[in-house]
Specification:
single chain; alpha+beta; two-stranded antiparallel ribbon; two-stranded antiparallel sheet; 1 helix; 4 strands
């Protein structure tokens, strides 16, 4: 069981992407996937919202913009 677990971990880690580290004042786009808009159809709405500067890092994968 331990050997199988180790092999599965190695294969999973190969597919996993490294998190991108952003610095203060880097500009980021926000995905509009969960943001409602006034557009009549979702197909015509913007996919991303403007450039926002990073203020600080809150958690390993969370940033305050």
């Amino acid at each position: 069981m331990k050997k199988t677990k180790d092999v599965m971990k190695i294969k999973t880690d190969k597919r996993r992407e490294k998190a991108i580290e952003y610095k203060k004042e880097d500009l980021l786009w926000i995905n509009n996937l969960n943001i409602s808009s006034d557009c009549l159809t979702k197909k015509l709405a913007f996919k991303r919202t403007g450039l926002f500067p990073v203020i600080k890092k809150v958690e390993p994968l969370a940033y305050k913009l």
